[in-house]
Design a protein that fits this description.
Elements lengths: L8 H61 L4 H6 L1 H13 L3 H14 L4 H16 L11 H10 L9 H21 L1 H19 L2
Subcellular location: Membrane
Pfam family, one: RGS
Organism: Nycticryphes semicollaris
């Protein structure tokens, strides 16, 4: 009599049943958590998607406005990173990108605080862009070239100011108007204008 009781299926089932409520509760909690995550995912995805679209739309509006501002003045173009990139690409087609590269090098040079770095940078810029027969010689007059050479002896953040100003004027009067008339910029303005019209028609 004592041998069959412990192995009785009914008793074994009872033991399982006593543990069942706790197991079911744990499983139910786990299932609820998983279902909650699954149910919220589409909503979350929708929110993220909507947010991304709004941000993209905002960037497009800013970009469109920026493109149209480039024609207002040369300063507006130079203030814009994408404007400088577009202008640089255009200058490459005219084989005159060294003027903009020199101007940008001078802007970076002005931010240098170390006197040692200032001197080494000044020499490097002069050798690359300013001296006669430089690898990427900019189009400045002999007098400005000599003034810049003398400035190197006591290099300060202003030693390229005159040469930079001459190069800037040259770009503003010569290359910039051609850039505004170029097919690439005309296409950009058409796209920017059409985006603006499209936005107004949907509001």
């Amino acid at each position: 009599m004592s041998c069959w009781v412990p192995s009785c299926p009914a008793l074994s089932m009872c033991r399982d049943l006593t543990a069942l409520p706790i197991t079911c509760l744990e499983r139910a909690k786990d299932l609820k958590t998983r279902l909650g995550i699954l149910l919220h995912k589409p909503e979350l995805g929708h929110r993220i998607g909507t947010s991304s679209k709004l941000q993209l739309g905002s960037r497009q509006r800013d970009s469109s406005r920026e493109v149209l501002e480039w024609r207002e003045s040369f300063d507006q173009l130079l203030k814009s990173k994408s404007g400088v990139t577009a202008f640089h690409t255009f200058l490459k087609t005219e084989f005159s990108e060294e003027n903009l590269d020199f101007w940008l090098a001078c802007e970076d040079f002005k931010k240098t605080r170390s006197k040692t770095k200032l001197a080494s940078k000044a020499n490097r810029i002069f050798e690359e862009f300013v001296q006669s027969e430089a690898p990427r010689e900019v189009n400045i007059d002999h007098e400005t070239r000599e003034i810049t050479r003398k400035n190197l002896s006591g290099a300060t953040s202003a030693c390229f100011n005159e040469a930079q100003a001459k190069t800037r004027t040259l770009m503003e009067k010569d290359s910039y108007p051609r850039f505004l008339k170029s097919a690439s910029y005309q296409d950009m303005t058409k796209q920017a204008t059409s985006r603006g019209i499209s936005k107004r028609s949907h509001t």
